[in-house]
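Risk register update: the risk of archive-format incompatibility is retired. Evidence:
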Amino acid sequence: MKIIVTGGAGFIGSAVIRHLIKNTEHQVLNLDKLTYAGNLASLKEVESSDRYHFVQADICDRNAVDQAFASFKPDAIMHLAAESHVDRSIDGPAAFIQTNIIGTYTLLEAARSYAKDHPDFRFHHISTDEVYGDLELDDSLFTEETPYDPSSPYSASKASSDHLVRSWQRTFGLKALITNCSNNYGPYHFPEKLIPLVILNALEGKPLPIYGKGDQIRDWLYVADHARALCTVCLQGKPGETYNIGGHNEKQNIEVVKTICAILDDLKPRSSDSHSREGGNLNRSSYSDLITFVADRPGHDMRYAIDAGKIERELGWKPAETFETGLRKTVQWYLDNKWWWEPLREKYQRERLGLKK
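Archived output:
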């Protein structure tokens, strides 16, 4: 098959493309604007494949999108291009409205036109569990039937795009599918997100900032597991359906940070200038000493948790990684791949975002 992946130079998009090129025979067209979070270095492993193609374009540019459809003649599109950082959506909502809503509308109209002559064409829209809002601190989980209740400009824009996709499916008959995923982590993650931020700050001896008390709960999903799930839904899912994708790994943010510190203490103990001698013994200080609590994010949801039973029952997907195995792989990857993340320090100085009230 021929598959367009929008936002393919991003964190999840690049994982999807690496999976498609390395583990299938499908052809891929990466359609990416290359904003701050887009990085073609994340595709270094597959960029030489004759089944991989790249077009730099904005999904809001209808002419560019139409040209991509006409030249590549895709069987499906996996739409991942999005502004995705909650803190950035607080500081500047306009970009989220433009990309996540107008961009999705533009793709839907291009796809509707293209599908007239390609009736089997599939439109797979990749979304987030944040559209569901906040969960109680009990045993409840987000299901595909959970009412939408977004809290941030980011999640509201994604909720809007989900509704657009459903309406194009119901009104125009577009063969559309939607997936809503929990928090992703893993290699090639832009360093303003929690897990890479903590890893890199720790390695540089900088404070490890935690919002509020760090008691917010997230369900964590290893990005390679998510990539497998997305490809399964795109190719095998039933048009008109929604599938929630989660890792069955509910963790408080403070627990995530302390686990990262423990892994780093094991893999790369802090340098000798952080040591003290007591009674002739050399005691190493832990990276957890760098933990710093900072003012909470405005409108911060307390808990997200996904019920991924539907995709497991109907499509046979399950995550391969536990949180412990996936996080250890992630930390080791950042230790081994300084070539990828070090240049990003010039792009992103890890300043505090999302302070507007």
